[in-house]
Amino acid sequence: MSILIDKATRVVVQGITGRDGAFHAKLMAEYGTAVVAGVTPGKGGMQQDGVPVFDTVRGAVETTKANTSVIYVPPAYAADAIIEAAAAGVTLVVAVTEGIPTLDMVRVAAYLEGKGTRLLGPNCPGLISPGKAKVGIIPGQIATPGPVGVVSRSGTLTYEVVWNLTQRGMGQTTCIGIGGDPVIGTTFLDVLPLFEADPETKAIVMMGEIGGTDEEEAAKYIAAKVRKPVVAFIAGQTAPPGKRMGHAGAIISGGTGTAAEKIAALTTAGIPVAKIPSEIPDLVEKALGR
Fold this sequence. Notes:
By secondary structure, this protein is α/β, with parallel strands linked by helices. It is 34% helix and 22% strand. It has helices at 19-31, 57-64, 75-87, 102-112, 155-167, 188-197, 214-225, 259-268, 280-287, and strands spanning 10-14, 34-39, 47-48, 51-54, 68-71, 92-95, 118-120, 126-129, 133-136, 145-152, 172-177, 203-209, 230-235, 273-274. α6 (188-197) packs parallel to α7 (214-225). The radius of gyration is 18 Å and the shape is globular.
């Protein structure tokens, strides 16, 4: 199995006529994902690489039965795009856009409360269920079907680790980049129970980074609720306090969010932590008893 997306996923691409939207919509379709619609206000009725374009997400959903949206909309308009998708009844929204103002995301989070829509991101690479579907910008050629679930705050780190696993003959059920902004829609605590419940996921790789307390909270949850082996890595181990590293959320402030604190919490929970990403396949093999 996989989590969140599979062959039944039907994708509407918001911003499909833009450079990034057009490029990645084509790659998703070539991978085998059912890209059934695009949305660009004012361009309804045209086609983009054979995909029908609509003026609104509601119109796209009503016509094509799309159940997932991926957003390649500029930061100033991305929050409204997320809300529009949720209002149209889309059950999964993947916000690739980076640079969305934090206050805009606070407004989005408030709107999504109680709604039946899951938001992944923003500022994330999306997700891929190898051999089934990909939504976002994760390169399809680096992933292969297998028993390892991957969840990461970092996009490029996701690619590196997935490729390392693939090279070692360890495929993946689903690989998910949750994003590293201060306000995101899906956290480690949301993804871990999905992997725990998935019968085909035999081990989980969790990649965190400095800033916040998400990894510490995940460590407590894993110790209490997760029975499958988990392997971790923390990015930013050499980052100086007060220095932002990549993501808006990856900053150590007020004496919290350091790599040492996160590694200590994970180790206390019995989770092996790789010193460098290339060590992860070794730790996964050991966890699986290979």
